[in-house]
Amino acid sequence: MFETPTRSAVPEQALQAIQQLIRDGGYQAGDALPSQRDLAERLGVSRASLREALSSLSALGVVSVHPGKGVFVQAAKPAPSAESPWFAWPFAAQIGAADTFQLRYVLEGFAAGQAANALTADDLDALELNVEAMRVELRAGNFEAAAQLDFAFHRRLLEAGGNLAMLHIVTSSEAIFVESQKLPFIRPERAMETWQEHRKILRALARHSPAAAQKAMQEHIRNAAARCGIVFAA
After folding, report:
1. Residue 86, Cβ neighbours under 10 Å: how many?
2. 66, β-bridge pairs
3. Does residue 93 sit in helix, strand or coil?
4. CB–CB of 79/229 below 8 Å?
5. CB neighbours of 83 closer than 8 A, spacing ≥ 6?
6. Could you say which DSSP state residue 188 is in?
7. pLDDT at residue number 162
8. Which residues are CB-contacts of 64 (< 8 A; sequence separation ≥ 6)?
């Protein structure tokens, strides 16, 4: 049966609890969920946490929120996976989202390690400005702009690493890579994790530590994939 989280529940717990409510309550597409006030009380969460959870579920296509009318089930979906994710991937005919993240894991992890010893003080200053600009855009909910900054951050490391073949692969498929960087923002309550992970990468780069930079980059890409429901072995 449905389990009620504690009062300290975060939006992630609320999201999972609503999914469980839909499953256990036998809700079908088009059915209305309880009012937001009732949901917040039933889940034991604040209205702010509930709104964040509903925003994520709306982005995932699980519910639709109609102000003044209510929250309606769009589809009762299984847990996300690489084979059956909770998002629309516009490049499915060319390359899967999971394959894209795996490619990035290999290419960009290596590039970060190479860049660690090659970045100049000016490069590091530019990356610092990029990371700060991303923080501002994420705080404002400007995810398109944040994704472009994300791509610019990764591209600068590829340029510094000096491997022209890898740089060509990424820049010639820029739309695909930008989409993979935008995808984790379907979980807006976790969007700032991208910024935090970029900060960790930048700290490793500033220490000129190839091993730490490669590890931080690969952790970032695996975490970003996981925020989309994509999990893969290293």
Report:
1. 20
2. 70
3. coil
4. yes
5. none
6. G
7. 92
8. 58, 71, 72, 74
pLDDT at 45: 85
The three-class DSSP label of residue 63 is strand
Helix, strand or coil, per DSSP, at residue 209: coil
The alpha-helical segments, DSSP class H, found in the chain are 11-24, 36-43, 47-59, 97-116, 121-139, 143-161, 164-172, 174-182, 192-206, 210-227
- The owner of tokens 């990371």 is 131
Q: Tell me how far apart the alpha carbons of residues 113 and 118 are, in angstroms, rounded to a whole number.
A: 9
pLDDT > 80? residue 76 = no
Tally of residues, the chain = 234
User: CA-to-CA distance for 227 and 184, rounded, in angstroms?
Assistant: 5
**38 CB neighbour count, 10 Å cutoff:** 10
Query: Is residue 160 within 8 Å of residue 122, measured between CB atoms?
Result: no
**Euclidean distance between CA atoms 133 and 202, whole angstroms:** 14
Domains of the chain: 10-73 (1.10.10.10), 97-228 (1.20.120.530)
> Using one digit for the tens of pLDDT, what is the confidence trace for 81-133?
444 445 678 898 899 999 999 999 999 999 999 999 999 999 999 999 999 99
Phi/psi at 35 (nearest 5 deg)? -60, 160
Spatial contact of 18 and 60, defined as CB atoms under 8 Å apart: no
